[in-house]
Structures are given as structure tokens and as C-alpha cells.
Design a protein that fits this description.
The model is unreliable at 1-7 (pLDDT under 50). The protein is of the alpha+beta class and 325 residues long. α3 packs across α8 (250-266). The chain has 9 helices and 10 strands. InterPro entries: Di-copper_centre_dom_sf, Tyrosinase/Hemocyanin, Tyrosinase_Cu-bd. Keywords: Copper, Metal-binding, Oxidoreductase. This is Tyrosinase copper-binding domain-containing protein.
């Protein structure tokens, strides 16, 4: 199986890491993948696993294999010779606009969105009703390699968080939108938040910490953790968990989530390598059984079914990789 023998290092998309050529070498295959025809005809779209793979016992492992599948596709279908980069968000937490990943340059994944006519200076976070400063954009991305990119799934911002939307696969061409929010990254996706994740004493706490945050500056608790905040700090397309993989930064964000999981595991491999908690439904619905190492995970036509035990180590089975510093 691909990479079963190869030990490879993922590099971060930050200053001093990927060269200009390496960034361009990644951007071109991403464009290539966007131009590929779908594997299945429209009437046979695979089921959407959103309500299984978030805030559940399979979140980390499912996304680890998803990242691997994406890199495999970039290599086999679009001639990519590198590895999946990751984004250390904490390095640009105080100023998202300074990040080489989203600064709008020709070696970035494009920058902020244009400011729409209905722009408002503040936004309200639900369900806590906390009001914070808005970003500076919110409209279509108009600079960098992904300017004027068309997305093909609907805007599902108003969709419920626990019911699969009936219109999830309706062909709805629209522009890639962004709304970079440095206020959110500063308070919810900083190195302090990463340290809190790595200090989690067990898998249950790690799962809670990555999705639920304490925000002492606003005297509020339970707003969102650094996983959700990293989605929301980019706004719009990246913020809707039904359609977020359409956003070019998605894989770099989730590679960073995977890196945090590995760093946490390596602090106590004996007790953490195969640590599990929760079910295979969002919010761990009590009526669904607890996952174990024999629990099977699926990715539709993208992959064979895998058991959780096959995905818990980055150095076993079909995985053989590590992350750079």
C-alpha cells in the first residue's frame, strides 16, 4: 500500500519552511484536483459523514485517514511529488493577514474576501450570543491563486447542526468567500490554546478542549475550541462544517489538528496511543454505542473500510510519517 515503507515529513506553511517553489508545487495540483470530474454520477453521491465525524469518538482518526487520502489523490491524479503541508496557526494568531498561507500573494492560498454591501462591524456567536468584532471581509476572494474560485455546493449556514440538510448536494455555483478575523484567532487559536490541548490529562479532556474553550477575556466559557475557531476565523466557506472541505486551507488546518493529536499521544504512548472515548455520532448521542478499536469507519468510494485500530498510530499500517518542527 502507498507509503507503507516510506517515512516522510510534513512541512509547515510558515516563514522559513516551505520554499517558494514548494508552495507553487502544492498549489498547482490543488487546482488540478478542483478540475477533475466527480468519481460518481450526480445521482450516486456518497453519504455525508458530517454527523458522525465531529465532536465524537472518531473525529481524530477519521480525519487522519481523510488527509492521507487527499495527498494520495494529489499524487496519483495530479502529479504532486511533495507531502501534505500543515499550518501552525499560533504563529499568525495575532495577525492573520501576515500569514504566508493567506496573505494574498502568488504563493499563498489567496487572501481575504471582498467586503460585501451588507457588512456589519460586529458578529454574534451562537448559541452563546457573545458579540465580537467582525473581520474585514466576508465576500468573494479576489486576490491570489484562488481568486474567483467557484464552489459547487450550497451555502448551508442556516442548516441545523444535527440534521442532514436535504439540499446538501444541490448544485449551487458560488464564489469562494472569506472573512479573516484576527480577534478570534488571537483569543481562541493561539499558542496558549495549543498548550492547553497538549496538557490534557486524558483523551476525554483533549476532545473537550479542542472543541470547547474558556474565554476569560470575555468572561465566557464554552464558546468554541481551537478546532472550530480555526474554521471560523477564516469565515464563510471554511466556517460551514457541511461544506468546509471546499476551502483550499482545509487540509492544512486538519493536518495541524492531526499534529496536535500526535504530540499529545507521544507524551505517554503506552496510555495514549490507542486511547478512545465517545461514540460515532455528533455530540456522542447516548443511544449510540461507544467506539472501540474494532469500530469500522468508511469514506464512501474514496477508500476501503478501516478499523479504528488501523488509524491510531502515524507509524503503523499504511501510515509512516511525522511532522517537522
Amino acid at each position: 500500500m502507498l507509503y507503507a515503507w516510506l517515512f516522510w515529513v510534513l512541512a509547515k506553511w510558515n516563514k522559513g519552511s516551505l520554499s517558494r517553489g514548494e508552495r507553487l508545487d502544492y498549489i498547482d495540483p490543488v487546482h488540478c484536483m478542483r478540475q477533475k470530474l466527480p468519481i460518481l454520477p450526480i445521482e450516486e453521491y456518497p453519504s455525508n459523514d458530517t454527523l458522525s465525524i465531529h465532536i465524537s469518538g472518531i473525529f481524530f482518526a477519521w480525519h487522519r485517514h481523510f488527509i492521507w487520502l487527499r495527498e494520495k489523490a494529489l499524487r496519483e491524479e495530479c502529479g504532486y511529488n511533495g507531502y501534505q503541508p500543515y499550518w501552525i496557526r499560533a504563529l499568525s494568531a495575532d495577525d492573520l493577514f501576515a500569514s504566508p498561507l493567506i496573505d494574498g500573494s502568488d504563493t499563498s492560498l489567496s487572501g481575504d474576501g471582498d467586503r460585501p454591501d451588507d457588512y456589519e462591524s460586529t458578529i454574534t456567536l451562537l448559541p452563546t450570543n457573545v458579540t465580537i468584532p467582525n473581520g474585514k471581509g466576508g465576500g468573494c476572494v479576489i486576490n491570489g491563486p484562488f481568486a474567483n474560485t467557484t464552489l459547487h455546493l450550497p451555502d448551508l449556514d442556516a442548516a441545523p447542526g444535527d440534521v442532514f440538510p436535504e439540499n446538501a448536494f444541490v448544485y449551487t455555483p458560488r464564489c469562494l468567500t472569506r472573512n479573516l478575523n484576527s480577534f478570534m484567532s488571537r483569543y481562541l487559536a493561539s499558542q496558549k490554546d495549543v498548550n492547553r490541548l497538549l496538557s490534557s490529562p486524558n483523551i476525554t479532556t483533549l476532545q473537550r478542549n479542542i472543541d470547547v474553550s474558556v474565554w476569560p477575556t470575555l468572561n465566557e466559557a464554552g464558546i468554541m475550541g481551537p478546532h472550530a475557531a480555526a474554521h471560523m476565523q477564516l469565515g464563510r466557506a471554511m466556517d460551514y462544517f457541511w461544506t468546509a472541505p471546499q476551502e483550499p486551507t482545509f487540509m492544512l488546518h486538519h493536518a495541524m489538528v492531526d499534529r496536535v493529536w500526535i504530540l499529545w499521544q507521544e507524551k505517554d504512548l503506552k496510555n495514549r496511543q490507542y486511547a478512545l472515548n465517545g461514540t460515532s455520532t455528533i455530540l456522542n448521542v447516548p443511544t449510540t454505542p461507544e467506539v472501540d478499536l474494532d469500530t469500522e469507519l468508511a469514506w464512501g468510494p474514496l477508500s476501503m473500510t478501516k478499523m479504528l485500530q488501523d488509524l491510531m498510530s502515524n507509524k503503523a499500517n499504511h501510515f509512516c510519517y511525522k511532522y517537522g518542527n
